[in-house]
Design goal:
It is a single chain. The chain is built from 15 helices and 23 strands. It has 533 residues and is an alpha/beta fold. The chain folds into three domains: 279 residues, Metallo-beta-lactamase, Chain A; 180 residues, Rossmann fold, CATH 3.40.50.10890; 48 residues. 44% of the residues are buried.
């Protein structure tokens, strides 16, 4: 039995792990990278047509986005996942293919003029269609025998409609090991979907660490936060532009806005318009409204029983065509604009940013995780200007974040998720987190739970039975020539990480002697006084 890490190793996106056991090769997720690549990734070490199956945790592109690429290279085996993930992938992967085909068409027009070679998309719509035929929908909590000696079980991860943690039981040469892949573990008490289901058993765990170095804090009043942002922006005459993941976060925001409208919380802007500007988000919203009751939480089921659609309301507009999208910015009425992509790296959101970033009366509201190096991250970090469509745009809009509205579990939630496993796992591998965060969370698992934990690098391979590291992976970061402003931002990011680490150290000293805590406090205050400018 062996496990090899091929993506999301010391990085947040591109999840992909290869298991070799019982003469079979199994991929867990096959995701696309988003944002800047930190470490050079190794290629898939085996031919696509020699992989026996894929186990998919959920539909987000950083977990599913390269499945059609696998198909284009000869993969023809089952893809096991939940029914909701199956339905969402059908639209998300096709959308990804259309984006790539459009980009290829644009690049090839330019290449033809310059006499350059043709550009080929990673995959096409035909590849997606072929991929979807291989999906095998599975129920939560039911055990499936997929090969001799290998069983799988999906449990609700509470991150996205249909998201799952995957339990894999392998028996080889008389030895049985249970591997558990967390997928993306969800936050609690979120609209529409249930809280994450706690795992019960595992010998080896692969766990995400997106928020492995921080806490969400006390659950904020999302409706109040969103109401305040909308009210203040509309009173200034501006738009609230929300870079929003098309699947999951868009529907959660619609749920909150429906509550705001139902309670009449926005004053003097009756029946304010809300635009969902993303064909993908429109399709996903229809799936969320399409009767997948086995995936909803109790509050959502109660609304449906009363005949209330939890994400539809008066004033909601769905933009599908380009003309409808252009109309949004031509209309001067203050409005809420929900548009993809959530990290501002592509899609129609970039057009809305171009029209609103320079307007001091508008607000750009971030409601999801922003990977380092993305346009969304740069805006949150205070970039004075950004380049969009070849034009430098000055940032005058109010840049805001809603506190705590994350689809990911925080550090303590992840620790508690692991605590539920009895007896303790033999090994925990930490991935799907920023470079330093993976190491920080691995240290937390080791020190607080007494479990051997490490954060593998890309390409790293381990023997599951002995725990021996067979190959340490690629530790070399990609070298880039960055302008001075980016170097400055990088240094500031290091400072932010140091601050987050300090918070963790403070938390670790909870319950310590008062004398030591007082001394520690004085040292922190002295440092703060020195640098308070």
């Amino acid at each position: 039995m062996k496990i090899q890490f091929l993506g999301a190793a010391h990085e947040v996106t591109g999840s992909c792990t290869l298991i070799t056991a019982c003469g079979r090769r199994i991929l867990v997720d096959c995701g696309m990278e988003q944002g800047a690549d930190i470490y050079e990734n190794c290629d898939l070490p085996v031919a696509a047509n020699t992989i026996d199956c894929v186990l998919l945790t959920h539909a987000h592109i950083d977990h599913s986005g390269k499945l059609p690429f696998l198909t284009a290279n000869g993969y023809e085996a089952p893809i096991y996942t939940t029914l909701a993930t199956n339905k969402l992938c059908a639209i998300m992967l096709m959308d990804s293919a259309h984006i790539q085909e459009f980009e290829a068409e644009w690049r090839n027009r330019k290449a033809k003029r310059n006499g350059d070679a043709d550009y080929k998309p990673l995959y096409t719509s035909d590849d997606v269609a072929a991929t979807m035929k291989m999906f095998v929908p599975c129920d939560y909590s039911k055990e499936y025998d997929i090969f001799e000696g290998i069983k799988i079980r999906f449990i609700d991860a509470g991150h996205l409609l249909g998201s799952a943690s995957i339990e894999i039981t392998i028996t080889e040469n008389g030895i049985t090991k249970v591997l558990l892949f967390s997928g993306d573990v969800g936050n609690v008490s979120r609209p529409l979907i249930r809280d994450p289901q706690k795992p019960e058993k595992a010998d080896v765990v692969v766990i995400e660490s997106t928020y492995g170095d921080r806490l969400h804090g006390e659950r904020p009043d999302y409706v109040k936060q969103l109401t305040d942002v909308i009210q203040n922006t509309f009173d200034r005459g501006g738009n609230v532009v929300v870079p929003c993941f098309a699947v999951g976060r868009t529907q959660e925001m619609l749920y909150l806005i429906r509550q705001i409208k139902e309670k009449g919380l926005i004053k003097n802007h009756d029946n304010f318009p809300v635009w969902v500007d993303s064909p993908l988000a429109v399709e996903a919203t229809e799936i969320y409204s399409g009767g997948l009751i086995d995936y909803y939480d109790s509050d959502t089921l109660a609304l449906l029983e009363k005949g209330i659609n939890p994400i539809v309301f008066q004033g909601l507009n769905l933009a599908v065509t380009s003309d409808e999208s252009r109309f949004i910015n031509a209309d001067t009425t203050p409005k809420v604009i929900l548009s993809a992509s959530g990290m501002c790296e592509a899609g129609r959101i970039r057009h809305h940013l171009k029209h609103n970033l320079w307007r001091e009366e508008s607000t750009i509201l971030f409601v999801g995780y922003q990977a380092e190096g993305t346009l969304g991250s740069k805006l949150i970090d205070g970039a004075p200007s950004v380049k969009l469509f070849g034009e430098e745009i000055t940032v005058r809009a109010d840049i805001r974040q809603i506190d705590g509205i994350s689809g990911h579990a925080d550090r303590d939630m992840l620790i508690n998720w692991l605590k539920n496993i009895a007896p303790k796992p033999e090994k925990v591998f930490v991935n799907h987190g920023e470079d330093t965060v993976c190491d920080i969370f691995a240290q937390s698992v080791s020190s607080e739970l007494g479990i051997s934990a490490e954060a593998p690098f890309n390409g790293a391979e381990y023997d599951i039975i002995s725990g021996e590291c067979l190959y340490g992976g690629n530790h070399e970061k990609i070298k880039r020539n960055k302008p001075n402003v980016q170097r400055a931002n990088s240094v500031f990011q290091r400072l932010l990480q140091a601050g987050k680490r300090l918070l963790i150290v403070i938390e670790h000293n909870r319950g310590g002697a008062n004398k030591d805590l007082a001394k520690f406090t004085d040292q922190i205050n002295a440092l703060a006084d020195k640098w308070d400018r």
